[in-house]
């Protein structure tokens, strides 16, 4: 038994052709949809990055009691449970929050891990006298990671040196070396298409008609104050990075074909959340209500046990179901506190696993959905106090 999870950050459902997008070039997502099952009613649980990843480990909602932070001492981690059962678990990722405060003990739950540096403001390279290029990024974003991001980019003049290609190259090396071995789980994760929308020219050229002359690939986190042309430009920059993600996903699918891994390998392709690109007059995520552009996520699963291809599923599923699915696939008992449910029968015959699901952000809206309608419960008071955080790990993002 083998399993692969290919995870993208901020992958937008509405930019993928299997979900009806007709202007963003994503042929490999279409290829994936034809090979496996496409979920039409997949929703987030806890937002944003590390809360979602705690759910990927524990199969429990995070946002109702705790914000961004590490795994707790009492957490049962699915990758660790697999490792303890004799399954080799390997993480390859350029998602730099894994190795900073607030996320620092997730990657250590795997049997082994491989980290790729340089995404966004990852404190990687030091170029003290580097002048900032002419870019609207410098005007519309703030914080020390702006200069850090430019320092990192100075070492990525070639596509093959960028984090996403490097991450997938390491993933290809793992698959070539281990395709004929048994009992392993590869978690291959890239920070893309998270902003900034840094991609090679060959992907941007596909959307050149929508792009403006001045460089800008990092949207702010606030209400939209820009022009219609600005919004169109940023959507095109995001589209270019989505097409880049599609290209490297294709490299994994090629190896699945080459080594006939479809015969005995579970494949999950997922994301943590979406991203607003001017819809509802908002940029980004986290401060506004979680509209479907953020909360309604793409999800694809190939399960060799049922062999279902090219079908769609309407049952409501969530992030918390993915670790339960992995444990069930490898025959490892689920912890009693895991709220997620294995999706084997849902993949095979669209069997529902829940009537409704919760999602939200700690201290913000709590949302309940049945996949058709969502009830949003906002904060009771402007400052939302008292607000108690229940944790034995008192660290947050970078502090």
How would you describe the overall organization of this protein?
By secondary structure, the protein is of the alpha/beta class. It is 27% helix and 16% strand. The chain has helices at 27-35, 49-58, 78-84, 137-140, 145-153, 163-178, 201-204, 228-258, 292-295, 321-329, 344-349, and strands at 2-8, 37-39, 42-43, 88-93, 112-115, 184-190, 265-271, 276-277, 283-284, 296-297, 300-302, 311-313, 317-318, 357-360, 366-369, 374-377. The strands form 4 sheets. An 8-stranded mixed beta sheet has the order 5-4-6-1-7-11-2-12, sandwiched between helices. The chain has a 3-stranded mixed beta sheet with strand order 10-3-13. A hairpin with a 4-residue loop joins strand 15 (366-369) and strand 16 (374-377). Helix 1 crosses helix 8. The longest helix is centred in the middle third of the chain and has 31 residues, at 228-258. The protein is globular.
Treating each run of at least 4 consecutive H or I residues as one helix, how many helices? 11
- What is the beta-strand fraction? 15-25%
Poorly predicted tracts of residues? none
Largest sheet, strands/sense/barrel: 8 strands, mixed
- Derived structural class: alpha/beta
Run of helices and strands: EHEEHHEEHHHEHHEEEHEEEEHHEEE
Q: What form results from the Cα inertia axes?
A: globular
Mean residue pLDDT: 96
Number of strands: 16
Helix content: 25-40%
Order of strands across the main sheet: 5-4-6-1-7-11-2-12
Cα(first) to Cα(last) distance is 40 Å
Please give the radius of gyration in angstroms: 20 Å
Instruction: Say what oligomer this is.
Output: single chain
């Amino acid at each position: 038994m083998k399993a692969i999870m290919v995870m993208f950050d901020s992958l937008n459902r509405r930019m993928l052709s299997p979900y009806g997008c007709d202007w963003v070039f994503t042929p490999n997502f279409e290829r994936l949809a034809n090979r496996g099952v496409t979920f039409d009613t997949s929703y987030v649980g806890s937002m944003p990055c590390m809360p979602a990843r705690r759910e990927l480990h524990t199969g429990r909602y995070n946002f109702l009691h705790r914000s961004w932070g590490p795994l707790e001492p009492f957490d049962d981690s699915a990758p660790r449970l697999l490792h303890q059962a004799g399954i080799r678990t390997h993480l390859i990722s350029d998602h730099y929050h894994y190795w900073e405060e607030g996320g620092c003990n997730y990657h250590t739950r795997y049997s082994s891990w491989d980290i790729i540096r340089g995404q966004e403001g990852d404190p990687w390279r030091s170029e003290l006298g580097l002048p900032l290029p002419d870019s609207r990024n410098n005007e519309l974003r703030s914080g020390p990671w702006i200069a850090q991001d430019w320092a990192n980019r100075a070492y990525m003049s070639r596509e093959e040196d960028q984090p996403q290609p490097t991450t997938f190259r390491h993933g290809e090396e793992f698959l070539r070396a281990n395709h004929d071995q048994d009992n392993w789980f590869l978690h291959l994760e890239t920070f893309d298409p998270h902003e900034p929308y840094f991609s090679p020219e060959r992907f941007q050229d596909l959307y050149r008609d929508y792009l403006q002359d001045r460089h800008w690939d990092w949207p702010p986190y606030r209400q939209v104050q820009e022009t219609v042309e600005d919004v169109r430009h940023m959507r095109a920059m995001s589209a270019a990075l989505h097409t880049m993600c599609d290209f490297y996903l294709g490299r994994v699918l090629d190896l699945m074909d080459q080594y006939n891994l479809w015969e005995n390998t579970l494949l999950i392709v997922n994301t943590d959340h979406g991203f607003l690109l001017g819809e509802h007059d908002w940029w980004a995520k986290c401060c506004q209500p979680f509209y479907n552009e953020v909360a309604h996520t793409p999800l694809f699963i190939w399960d060799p046990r049922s062999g279902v291809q090219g079908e769609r599923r309407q049952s409501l599923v969530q992030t918390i179901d993915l670790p339960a699915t992995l444990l069930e696939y490898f025959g490892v008992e689920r912890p009693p506190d895991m709220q997620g449910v294995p999706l084997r029968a849902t993949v095979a015959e669209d069997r529902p696993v829940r009537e409704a699901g919760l999602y939200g952000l700690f201290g913000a809206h709590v949302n309940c959905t049945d996949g058709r309608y969502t009830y949003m419960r906002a904060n009771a008071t402007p400052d939302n106090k008292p607000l108690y955080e229940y944790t034995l790990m008192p660290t947050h993002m970078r502090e």
